[in-house]
Amino acid sequence: MPLTNKRAGIGFYKGNSLMTKEGRHTSKGYKLDRNKMLTIVAPDLEGFKLKPYVAPSVPKYPPKEYDPEAN
């Protein structure tokens, strides 16, 4: 019997879309298809001034007395 949100717990969400499979099952095992694999092309970050890390001590919202035109 398939698992649906009617038969599962309250926090279950099945989703409505799938990514394509990256391969197929054969008698010799699972064969990957390199044309279907996800490829992420990152830009060159040479000389990039910003850093990817944000400290946990940074407040989530600006202070209430924040005035963007004060600078």
UniProtKB/TrEMBL annotation:
GO BP terms: translation
Keyword Transit peptide: yes
Swiss-Prot/TrEMBL keywords: Mitochondrion, Ribonucleoprotein, Ribosomal protein, Transit peptide
Protein's UniProt keywords contain Hydrolase: no
Family: Belongs to the mitochondrion-specific ribosomal protein mL41 family.
Pfam families per the UniProt record, alphabetical: MRP-L27
Primary location recorded for the protein, binned into one broad class: mitochondrion
Protein name (database record): Ribosomal protein L27
GO molecular function: structural constituent of ribosome
Taxonomic lineage: Eukaryota, Sar, Stramenopiles, Ochrophyta, Bolidophyceae
Highest taxon of the lineage: Eukaryota
